[in-house]
Amino acid sequence: MSAPDDQALEWLVRLNDDRADDKLRAEFARWHQRPENAAAWAEAQAFWNRLAPVTAEMRRQRQVSRRAAMAVGGAALLTPLGFWLTRPGRFADYRTTAGETRRLQLDDGSRVDLAAGSALSVDFGRARRDLTLHRGEAFFQVAPDAARPFIVSAGGAEFTALGTAFNLRLVTDRISLTVTEHRVLARRDRDETTVDEGQMLDLGQDGRGPRPRPQAVDPELATAWRHDRLIFAAAPLGEVMDVLGRNAGWTVMLSRAAARIPVTAMFSLSRLEEAPETIARTLPVQLSRLPGGVIVIRAR
Description:
The protein has helices at 4-15, 22-32, 35-51, 56-70, 80-86, 219-222, 237-248, 256-259, 275-282, and strands at 94-95, 102-105, 111-114, 119-124, 129-135, 137-141, 150-154, 157-170, 174-188, 191-196, 199-204, 215-216, 229-236, 251-254, 262-268, 285-290, 294-299. The protein has 300 residues and is of the alpha+beta class. Strands 1, 2, 3, 4, 5, 6, 7, 8, 9, 10, 11 and 12 form a 12-stranded mixed β-sheet that branches. A 3-stranded mixed β-sheet has the order 14-17-16, with helices on both faces. A two-stranded antiparallel ribbon has the order 13-15.
């Protein structure tokens, strides 16, 4: 039998179908009576409402979600508008939308390539050059200035350039640093790690777990997004869909079991519409598309 969170996502898909009827809602109410199922449904429903795009179609679909909630006593729903207002980087200096990349020329001569669905703030002062990557991904080519360190904050960590070019990628639960030239000093809380050219470092955004160590990596693969490709090598499906969704404009919901499945694949940014179905054909998952660009994935 599948895990409760997989079942909850299955119910989310079925109840958002136009064919949902009273018999199906009664079946859902019986399933919901088990405490572990009720907890999984509450989590799936909260996640759905927090991430759902604010569109007319989505507001129509929320009527279905409300009927499902009534079957179990009327659960309170979070508003997508609240998510929109609190989305990281909502008021950043530079933002990109799905399918859009930007090359920024900063005042100090540094250059930044900003990936799709990303947000970056810049605050240059006399003593230091501060930047914040709120969400998404960016590649930094740093102009030398020994008197003003170049420091990027992201995911609860700081990254100080040491005469450097480097890439930062923020995903749901961690941030990945890849150094393509020279070195970067990564700092989180009291831990400091120097990452050399040709190495990558993964840091959990919650600060838990053992101290990570740099790993050898092919920088060309890690920064392939700058050349119209996305390449993953044994990456968890949760990270893959986070990156694909940011580039394509999808909202993605995954069960925990599905999110852990390793993926090795290459996708063309110009043909991302084919990616979800390719994943569904090659991995042990079930995939459903809902109105508003929402993709639901659960383990088989």
